[in-house]
């Protein structure tokens, strides 16, 4: 029996055909996202009605969408998180859900470090100055010797620690379930959120998005940070109150920020007006090698989930 599969990610198999070949060799009838962007709930309602399996991106898989997809048996997320999926309804409907948590780890960690260095040395800002006809040198700072505050010491947070070892950083972390063994190995101090924010020169967020963590960095939390501190979020939109961040950056109450994720994507808010923030369009996993690995794993997860269905 041929199974109908829909792939909603915007760039699936663009860099390597092997993930798509896995599905077609298994006899799957594959359709891909015709819009090459994140689908709206209304588009999902139209496209998912007759599918057996879904390789999902970051589209909102709401209760309405899941209930309308009458034949859907497996969702294979091409990515680490499942916060865009109504998991309670998925369980109720007997839909299996898979993710690819390991594949994007290196790519997101490397992007995080790149953004740190960019913020500290003002690389993007200097580029804009030259393009505007200005030869304007601004003094930056070293990453070496700084105190790095990490919110969320999961796969990506731990990898950031491992990759930044040559910079002789001090580490302070906040995590719901602290990995004490890892912390002891790398000399990480575990602390409460307020203490971390007051001590860190750089705060980087690597938390999952759950309702309890929405807006975990808001006006009060930003007021605790040093005036010369930097904030990075390469985790999930909604963890940072973007209005509060705009006000803090505009008032120079913190030195700068870098965001790869936003509460609403594509982002069209006021942070674009500021020169002390770096904005990237959710490209954490967009390294070719990592992306191919994610897609292959997502395809394998989907096929495994459909066995016996």
Overview of the structural elements:
The protein has 309 residues and is of the alpha/beta class. The protein folds into two domains: 4-103 and 287-306, NAD(P)-binding Rossmann-like Domain (Rossmann fold); 105-279, Rossmann fold. The chain has twelve helices and twelve strands. The strands form two sheets. A seven-stranded parallel beta sheet has the order 8-7-6-9-10-11-12, sandwiched between helices. Strands 2-1-3-4-5 form a five-stranded parallel beta sheet, sandwiched between helices. Helix 7 (155-163) links the parallel strand 6 (147-151) and strand 7. Helix 1 runs parallel beside helix 12 and helix 5 crosses helix 7. The longest helix has 19 residues, at 288-306. It is globular, with a radius of gyration of 21 Å. The termini are close together. The relative contact order is 0.14. The model has no long low-confidence stretch (mean pLDDT 95).
């Amino acid at each position: 029996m041929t199974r109908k599969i829909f792939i909603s990610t915007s760039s699936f198999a663009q860099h390597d055909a092997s993930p798509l070949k896995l599905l077609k060799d298994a006899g799957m009838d594959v359709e891909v996202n015709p819009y090459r962007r994140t689908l709206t709930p209304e588009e999902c309602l139209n496209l998912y009605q007759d599918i057996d399996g879904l390789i999902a991106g970051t589209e909102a898989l709401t209760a309405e969408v899941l209930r309308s997809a009458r034949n859907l048996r497996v969702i294979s997320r091409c990515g680490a998180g499942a916060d865009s999926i109504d998991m309670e309804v998925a369980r109720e409907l007997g839909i299996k859900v898979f993710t690819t948590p390991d594949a994007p780890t290196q790519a997101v960690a490397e992007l995080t470090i790149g953004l740190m260095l960019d913020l500290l040395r003002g690389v993007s800002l200097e580029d804009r100055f030259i393009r505007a006809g200005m030869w304007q040198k601004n003094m930056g700072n070293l990453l070496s010797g700084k105190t790095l505050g990490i919110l969320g010491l999961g796969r990506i947070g731990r990898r950031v620690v491992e990759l930044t070892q040559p910079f002789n950083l001090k580490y302070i972390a906040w995590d719901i379930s602290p990995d004490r063994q890892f912390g002891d190995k790398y000399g990480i101090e575990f602390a409460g959120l307020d203490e971390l924010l007051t001590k860190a020169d750089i705060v980087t967020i690597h938390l999952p998005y759950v309702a309890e963590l929405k807006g975990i960095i808001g006006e009060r939390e930003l007021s605790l940070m040093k005036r010369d501190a930097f904030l990075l979020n390469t985790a999930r939109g909604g963890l940072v109150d973007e209005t509060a961040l705009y006000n803090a950056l505009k008032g120079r109450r913190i030195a700068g920020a870098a965001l790869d994720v936003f509460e609403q994507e594509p982002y069209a808010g006021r942070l674009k007006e500021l020169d002390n923030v770096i904005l990237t369009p959710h490209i954490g996993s967009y390294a070719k090698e990592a992306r191919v690995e994610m897609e292959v794993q997502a395809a394998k997860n989907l096929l495994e989930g459909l066995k016996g269905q």
